[in-house]
Design a protein that fits this description.
Low-confidence stretches of chain A: 51-62, 72-98, 175-199, 252-348, 385-398
Helix content of chain B: over 70%
Order of helices and strands of chain B: HHHHHHHHH
Structural class of chain A: alpha+beta
Distance between the termini of chain B: 27 Å
Shape of chain A: extended
Shape of chain B: globular
Mean pLDDT of chain A: 58
Order of helices and strands of chain A: HHHHHEEEEEEEEHEEEEHHHEE
Strand order of the largest sheet of chain A: 9-10-11-12-13-1-2-3-4-5-6-14
Strand content of chain A: 15-25%
Low-confidence stretches of chain B: 1-22
Radius of gyration of chain B: 20 Å
Largest sheet of chain B: none
Number of strands of chain B: 0
Radius of gyration of chain A: 22 Å
Helix content of chain A: 25-40%
Number of strands of chain A: 14
Oligomer: heterodimer
Chain lengths: ~400, ~200
């Protein structure tokens, strides 16, 4: 490929002056930072992917990713009306999002309805995601049957509760902790600002305000991106912070949510259908999921559970019933279960929708020990089983 | 006295350490940012614009992987550019069907880039500011073609049509304009250096 510029820049001096002109025009400090961030981000992702290949601990809740996308897409849209300085403003958003700050998100996860259930009675989980910075994160979820799962990291100790109430430590090299795991699964962005650089490319964003609200609707564009299909964001007037975000995963054809399918169906390396995202790794199959419409109209198949504690699963991943399950390869397409612990057909469902709402941090700040394990971990949670076989059946199913 | 430089050797080959504070990747990113504009200038001088971003990212990736081999006594920018140069050569070999850049020109660009190794990011940005000043001081006929070429991305043929000259005349005018800009920048650099010397004397 030739460069028209180089056609008339015949000497080294010509080239250098021409290059300087272009650097001055195009390569603003913000753009340079963006390029560096992108490179370093890919290096981190590469390292993490390599680490995961050797150790398949997994924490695949869609919640953190959804939270990041909410803010990221929101920031992208907020700044998009000024195309002349979009890069600079996006960078400003990155800088803003990179700042530490205590925040709490209220979460609602709705799972595909089971046979005989309606949309309204579909299994769900509610909880909170508390974040101080990328090394202080606490996720707490309560499932329909009353069981809870908690996982946190306090800067030093990564921990999780078991179904038996024990506190287990998670290996320090477990892939969880740094704040965000993107829907890609193999790309860990531990800082929001890092995600900002790429997210805009994957969604088509439009204002869809009603009654004066600042509302944004985003539809996925890049089919290779494993994020939710649709996102609706409600922004806080003035600050433009994301106040509420609703994520819908998967298209109608993904309604089988729990059925293991291979790469041929779901796309090797392509976008995972996984209705709740978490994500398959690149090269793995996908678990389909339902949209809201499909779930209510079509035969629901995903199952979220008998409600019995799943001690063994807690042992495997430390999360207790409903805790995210380790990734297991193409046969475990549904990824982590967030919904009740039971399963049908040996697979767990994934959330069909995830709603995130920013709420006030109680008292304005989390207690110093909020992110710490409630008691000293009694042991290290064992790594999950390896292999592509079906996941062990929960005790209640045996 | 403690060594203020980041101990990249100790951490460069591994996963960024968890916990607060900069990890190896953060430190690495800071260093690359510091030299980013200069590396981009080198790449923009050496390869077509369409390849610049990819080569930049490739250079950063390769540098990270080779970080354990980095000799800390050498300037980081020169080391990074050395990696980029290999990538430029590789790119050139893949683009052999197109008009390749001569070795002599690449070598001269390399030498030109070396002159920037001594400064820092701010100094380089200062040169870009001086570049602007020098462009603004060009005689009209030269400033016009420079503006059309580098600010409006107009092809030479379009410029020729606009200014009522033939293509070769425009190319020549551009070349002279660039030479005038280079001379102007050298003068300004000399003044800046004298000022700095005077200030520290």
């Amino acid at each position: 490929m030739t460069d028209e510029r180089h056609d008339h820049e015949e000497t080294a001096n010509d080239r250098w002056i021409g290059a300087m002109m272009h650097v001055q025009r195009f390569d603003t400090p913000e753009r340079v930072d963006m390029l560096v961030d992108r490179s370093v981000r890919s290096l981190r992702a590469e390292s993490i992917a390599a680490r995961r290949r050797t150790r398949s601990w997994d924490w695949r809740t869609p919640v953190a990713a959804a939270a990041s996308i909410a803010i990221v897409v929101g920031a992208t849209l907020v700044f998009s009306p000024q195309p002349a300085s979009a890069d600079s403003l996006l960078r400003a958003a990155q800088v803003a999002e990179a700042r530490p700050g205590e925040r709490r998100f209220a979460l609602t996860l709705v799972f595909p309805a089971r046979p005989g259930e309606t949309e309204a009675t579909a299994p769900r989980a509610t909880g909170t995601l508390d974040v101080r910075d990328d090394t202080h994160v606490r996720l707490e979820l309560t499932f329909s049957d009353g069981r809870t799962m908690v996982r946190g990291i306090d800067g030093h100790t990564s921990w999780v509760n078991s179904a038996d109430g024990e506190i287990l430590s998670v290996p320090s090299d477990a892939p969880w902790p740094r704040f965000i795991e993107t829907p890609e699964g193999d790309f860990l962005a531990d800082r929001m600002d890092a995600v900002l650089g790429d997210i805009g490319a994957n969604y088509e964003i439009a204002r869809c305000s009603t009654s004066g609200e600042e509302r944004i609707c985003a539809s996925i564009v890049d089919r290779g991106f494993r994020g939710p299909e649709n996102i609706v964001l409600t922004l806080e007037p003035g600050s433009h912070r994301v106040q509420r975000a609703e994520f819908t995963f998967g298209g109608p054809e993904r309604g089988r949510g729990h059925e293991g399918r291979g790469p041929d169906e779901a796309g090797r390396g392509g976008r995972a259908g996984h209705g709740g995202m978490p994500p398959k790794r690149r090269g793995e199959g996908a678990a389909p999921a339902m949209t809201v419409e499909a779930a209510s109209a079509a035969k629901p198949t995903a199952e979220t559970g008998s409600g019995r504690p799943d001690a063994r699963s807690a042992q495997r991943g430390g999360g207790g019933a409903g805790r995210p399950r380790p990734e297991r390869g193409p046969a475990t397409l549904a990824g982590p279960s967030m919904g009740g612990g039971g399963r049908e057909g040996g697979r767990r469902a994934e959330p069909r929708t995830v709603t995130i709402e920013r709420v006030d941090v109680p008292g304005g700040a989390f207690a110093d020990n909020w992110f710490a394990p409630p008691s000293k971990p009694v042991r290290m949670a064992p790594p999950p089983p390896r292999g592509d076989g079906p996941p062990p059946r929960p005790r209640g199913d045996e | 006295m403690p060594d203020p430089r980041p101990n990249l050797r100790l951490t460069g080959s591994g996963i960024p350490a968890p916990g607060p504070g900069p990890d190896a990747a953060d430190v690495f990113a800071i260093l690359v940012r510091e030299h980013g504009e200069r590396l981009l200038a080198y790449l923009r001088a050496s390869v077509p614009s369409s390849a610049v971003d990819d080569l930049f990212q490739d250079a950063v990736t390769v540098a990270w992987r080779r970080l354990p081999d980095y000799d800390r006594t050498r300037p980081f920018g020169a080391w990074l550019r050395g990696i980029a140069r290999n990538l430029v050569l590789d790119h050139r070999s893949r683009m052999y069907r197109e008009r390749p850049t001569d070795d002599a020109i690449l070598d001269a660009i390399e030498r030109r880039a070396e002159q920037e190794d001594g400064g820092d990011r701010e100094e380089f940005r200062g040169k870009l500011t001086r570049l602007d000043e020098c462009v603004s001081r060009l005689p009209d006929e030269y400033r016009t073609v420079i503006h059309m070429c580098y600010r409006l991305d107009a092809p030479v043929a379009t410029i020729a049509k606009e200014v009522g000259a033939n293509i070769e005349a425009v190319k020549k005018r551009l070349q002279r304009a660039r030479a005038m800009i280079a001379a102007c920048m050298e003068r300004k650099q000399g003044v800046a250096d004298d000022g700095a010397t005077g200030a520290t004397a």
